[in-house]
Amino acid sequence: RRGEMAKSMQLIDNEVFRAYATYAAIVLLKMMLMSLITAYFRITRKAFANPEDTASFGKGESAKKYLRTDPDVERVRRGHLNDLENIIPFVGIGLLYALSGPELSTALLHFRIFAGARILHTLAYLIPLPQPGRGLSWAVGYSVTFSMAYRVLKTVLLL
Amino acid sequence: RRGEMAKSMQLIDNEVFRAYATYAAIVLLKMMLMSLITAYFRITRKAFANPEDTASFGKGESAKKYLRTDPDVERVRRGHLNDLENIIPFVGIGLLYALSGPELSTALLHFRIFAGARILHTLAYLIPLPQPGRGLSWAVGYSVTFSMAYRVLKTVLLL
Amino acid sequence: RRGEMAKSMQLIDNEVFRAYATYAAIVLLKMMLMSLITAYFRITRKAFANPEDTASFGKGESAKKYLRTDPDVERVRRGHLNDLENIIPFVGIGLLYALSGPELSTALLHFRIFAGARILHTLAYLIPLPQPGRGLSWAVGYSVTFSMAYRVLKTVLLL
């Protein structure tokens, strides 16, 4: 039992891995928050995608009118999909990057800029801010992931 | 060679990590199953998204009518997207959680409840069951991932 | 410091893990490329999803006409979503597979076929190639991930 625990502790004792785990958890929680915001807008705007979700509003035609799209709901959903497209590559490539043995300060720089950029991206999407606010925050996060992927491939390449 | 193998075996010898690997594989396979169900409904409902997919039904207008959305296809696709939004955070946060050294029994409780909740969520979506069946199964899975993220951040926090 | 570095180096010194890291990074970068292709088509086809993205084309009705869907944009977006549905399970299950101690040659075979199949899938989607080109490349990638999941479950099963 002790031995196993010790083994499982090796990665988590590494500072770069701890920093990775912290920021990966933060950006994944931020992504999960989009589900709650979608639910909030679906309920307040009364705009649902499934007939069974509108059953509490009555039967037949009276409920059917709530089966509709709403601009605010669609906006949050686009933000959520953009998170899936960008945060998941960060989590996957970031894990490989953390295992490739970077300096702690360099790793923290990557993780902090990415997390900040994605939080700004969500704010820019939901407020919404005028462009190029959202575009720039997207580009910064994208570049951080690309920079980590470059280091991973340079360090481990085995085709 | 032997040494390398031994090294790669460390994580996989850990019981918590084996439990994680088992449930992560199960929920990812469940998510992949949605692709097959989508294909099944696209073919049986004759509802496709790409012109090249309808070419076998003939040319021109006769094939064009199969370029359409179908309620059953869209329902499976919504279930698939919900899996992406919920199962992927579980797989990412669950890995960090498994490495944070939890008790095996606590970890198994998290993994089993999550897998059960997501299987129920898919059934509730596809049958479909009346609400709040789908809503509750979603909330249970969401809470499990949140509980694991809380433990990860409490254990490793390095900002 | 040295000790930590050494620890973090264990996984990355393993050849199977290096091969996994290489191919996981490649397919995630390929997936990220879809964002750039979407942006390219949105700009050249002048088809945007957010009012704030069309502000540079003027105010009011003159800009509103660019808030529309375009067949080329939607095609890239379907390809991107298909990547999320298939590449992410590969990255998750592939990690567990790499840690389950497979032979390097077997692992490389899986990773190379998957990466090749997904690159073909993107080409088949974007050109587009007549079916069953896209369908077959999808099925090959799907089968590789399934084969890895089978080995993971056979090796680690702990329910």
From TrEMBL, chains A, B, C:
<keyword id="KW-1000">Mitochondrion outer membrane</keyword>
<feature type="transmembrane region" description="Helical">
    <location>
        <begin position="84"/>
        <end position="101"/>
    </location>
</feature>
<keyword id="KW-0812">Transmembrane</keyword>
<keyword id="KW-1133">Transmembrane helix</keyword>
<protein>
    <recommendedName>
        <fullName>Microsomal glutathione S-transferase 1</fullName>
        <ecNumber>2.5.1.18</ecNumber>
    </recommendedName>
</protein>
<keyword id="KW-0472">Membrane</keyword>
<dbReference type="GO" id="GO:0005741">
    <property type="term" value="C:mitochondrial outer membrane"/>
</dbReference>
<comment type="similarity">
    <text>Belongs to the MAPEG family.</text>
</comment>
<keyword id="KW-0808">Transferase</keyword>
<dbReference type="InterPro" id="IPR001129">
    <property type="entry name" value="Membr-assoc_MAPEG"/>
</dbReference>
<comment type="subunit">
    <text>Homotrimer; The trimer binds only one molecule of glutathione.</text>
</comment>
<keyword id="KW-0496">Mitochondrion</keyword>
<feature type="transmembrane region" description="Helical">
    <location>
        <begin position="20"/>
        <end position="41"/>
    </location>
</feature>
<comment type="function">
    <text>Conjugation of reduced glutathione to a wide number of exogenous and endogenous hydrophobic electrophiles.</text>
</comment>
<keyword id="KW-0256">Endoplasmic reticulum</keyword>
<dbReference type="InterPro" id="IPR040162">
    <property type="entry name" value="MGST1-like"/>
</dbReference>
<dbReference type="GO" id="GO:0005789">
    <property type="term" value="C:endoplasmic reticulum membrane"/>
</dbReference>
<dbReference type="InterPro" id="IPR023352">
    <property type="entry name" value="MAPEG-like_dom_sf"/>
</dbReference>
<dbReference type="GO" id="GO:0004364">
    <property type="term" value="F:glutathione transferase activity"/>
</dbReference>
<keyword id="KW-0007">Acetylation</keyword>
<dbReference type="Pfam" id="PF01124">
    <property type="entry name" value="MAPEG"/>
</dbReference>
